[in-house]
Prior knowledge:
Blueprint: H1 16-24
Amino acid sequence: xxxxxxxxxxxxxxxxxxxxxxxxxxxxxxxxxxxxxxxxxxxxxxx
Length: 47
């Protein structure tokens, strides 16, 4: 599985990395069609 590594010193909290991850795990691979209220479209955070 590919992982996104975040440099916490440079992070401004925009959550674009989470949105990119959610979009990548959908069938359409597009953020324009995401239903953010669906449980499958929640952020996947692994620490």
